[in-house]
Amino acid sequence: MEDILRLRKINKSFPGVKALTDVDLTLKKGEVHALVGENGAGKSTLMKTISGAYKKDSGSIWFDGKEVEVTSPKQSELMGISIIYQELNLIERITVAENVFTGRYPLKHGLVQWGKMTRDAQALFDEFDLKIDAKRLVRSLTMAQKQMVEIIKAVSINAKVIIMDEPTSSLSSKETESLFRIIRKLKANGVAVVFITHRLDEIFAVCDRMTVLRDGHYIGERDIQSITKSEMIAMMIGRELTQQYPERSNEIGEVTLEVKNISDGGKHVNDVSFSARRGEVLGFYGLVGAGRTETMRMIFGVDPKAGGQVFLHGKEIHLKSPRDAIGHGIGFITENRRDEGLFLRSSVRVNTVMVALGKILSHGFINYKKEAEVSQHYVDKLRTATPSINQKAMFLSGGNQQKVVLSKWLFSDSEIIIFDEPTRGIDVGARREIYQIINDLVADGKTVVVVSSDMEEIMGVSDRILVMYEGNVAGEVQKEDFSQSLITEYAVGERTQPV
Ligand SMILES: Nc1ncnc2c1ncn2[C@@H]1O[C@H](COP(=O)(O)OP(=O)(O)OP(=O)(O)O)[C@@H](O)[C@H]1O
Ligand SMILES: [Mg+2]
Which superkingdom is the protein from (predicted)? Predict the structure, then answer.
């Protein structure tokens, strides 16, 4: 097969960071190419140099047999390269069709042909069997549907290369399946797709070849057919990874957190009751939209509850804000680090100590030496890739931002720690570190609640699993009964159990 894109010896530096060193990538027409590597390896940066968002320092780019200079996002798009960022780029308050044809509205005698535009957009959605109404406002779509709109937009400009930067990280497994169907169709149409993900199973499911980066260096290129998962991991992290879920020695004790009949008036949460124990990891599984995050947000005081009670050590507590929750020793590591977890303009060190400032005060003043020690400790412990603890959070890669969010809650010493999708966007090596941290927390007598949509993960980390379905707890599964089929039956509403 012919090459559509060739990158040779690409270099890119930021102040204090050499993000890419002599990186090569060869993309063939009609292939799905995985770009993999640990958090901060340089994947997003490399893609931004070909989409025109960043200017490379040196190296060459060959597109369709010709050497090209990419000078701007517009030019890259005109050439036939389209990139779908994780933080999507759609305009929320206009229609799907208008988004697809942004900047290219069909004109006749100087007037926009709205009807034609809507019909053309709809035809593309139909061609891909996507049940999205082109007349709807983007605002009313789900995350997965918005992503589909971005893909159709790429198709409509006849993109020859479509780059997807962690497209599946906020999709349910069913939505991921339909994304794969679209990817296969793009491939059949001769489009080359660059697919970035931290979920290795997805690479085996949909990719043909892969390129591995480590610390900004090119490590190698392989056919997916001729590589095993452990070889893949070894290439990514430069060592063998034994046992993804480390052994745990915890003693499960008395009930610490108890939630009774909590509800948000039926919007997402109808009636949820559960209790969690000292030294226990309680898992919450469910499909996207089952109400798990909304339940946790009420417990943490982010959203008001319409009814129900929360007890800590048997005493009712009233949480009107996250500050109240923190005061009671409850920590919440959110899935949405951009909105809730981090101050992007602040440094790694400031973010790390933020929730537990009291712990680094001496005589009422911030002890900067201690602040530095603490944040350096967590940077080392989680192997956060940052040039220093003074780097602003906004300049870290996605996965490394998540590690900073984790650090601040670890330092805060909460007694109850709620992790909402803790490994989203986190690479395999660091994922194991997070599981180890969860183990350390429960060994230390803390109560850990983990919300995850990843079946393997929820079974790997939990002592007990509650499965939510449409705003209720549909079932409870003890460790000895963990099975994918049982949990799935509860999650899709095919089975319920009074709890
Ligand atoms: N605008 C920027 N300013 C400073 N440093 C940056 C900037 N963008 C990226 N970096 C740094 O470049 C390196 C590579 O980051 P990049 O985002 O490409 O990683 P990644 O492989 O996409 O990681 P992840 O899997 O976490 O998304 C990181 O050390 C990151 O902190
Ligand atoms: Mg990235």
Answer: Bacteria
- Two tokens, residue 74: 């517009």
Contact between residue 270 and residue 470 where contact means Cβ atoms under 8 Å apart: yes
Residue 423 is predicted with a pLDDT of 86
pLDDT by residue (tens digit) across 280-306? 999 999 987 789 999 999 999 999 999
Side-chain-side CA neighbours of 72 within 13 Å: the count stands at: 3
Question: Cβ contacts of residue 123 below 8 Å, gap of 6+?
Answer: none
Query: 161: Cβ below 6 Å to ligand 1?
Result: no
- Give the separation between CA 426 and CA 346, rounded to whole angstroms: 21
pLDDT at residue 30, as a whole number: 95
Tokens of 351: 């973010």
CA 401 – ligand 1 centroid, Å: 10
Cα 199 to Cα 283: distance, rounded to the nearest angstrom:
20
Name beta bridge partners: 191. Answer: none
pLDDT, one tens digit per residue, over 333-350 is 886 665 567 888 999 999
- Please indicate whether residue 242 or residue 186 has the higher confidence score (pLDDT): 186
Q: What is the pLDDT of residues 211-251, one digit of tens each?
A: 999 989 999 999 999 999 889 988 988 876 667 788 888 89
Return phi, psi of residue 96, to 5°. -60, -50
How many Å lie between the centroid of ligand 2 and the Cα of residue 436?
24
- Are the folds of 3-237 and 255-491 the same? yes
- State if residue 20 touches ligand 1 by the CB under 6 angstroms criterion: no
Testing ligand 1's pocket by substitution, the residue of 21, 44, 194, 197 carrying the most ligand atoms inside 8 A of its CB is 44
CATH class, range 3-237: alpha beta
What is the domain partition of the chain in residue ranges?
3-237, 255-491
d(CA 446, CA 279): 5
CA 73 to mean position of chain CA atoms: 24
Task: Report the sign of the C-alpha dihedral through residues 45, 50, 53, 57, in that order.
Answer: positive
| Contact assessment for residue 61 and residue 67, using Cβ atoms and an 8 Å cutoff | yes
Separation of CA 39 and ligand 1 centre (Å): 8
Check pLDDT > 60 for residue 499: no
pLDDT at 429 over 60: yes
CATH of 255-491, one of 3.30.450.20, 3.40.50.300, 1.25.40.10, 3.40.1350.10: 3.40.50.300
Number of residues in the chain: 499
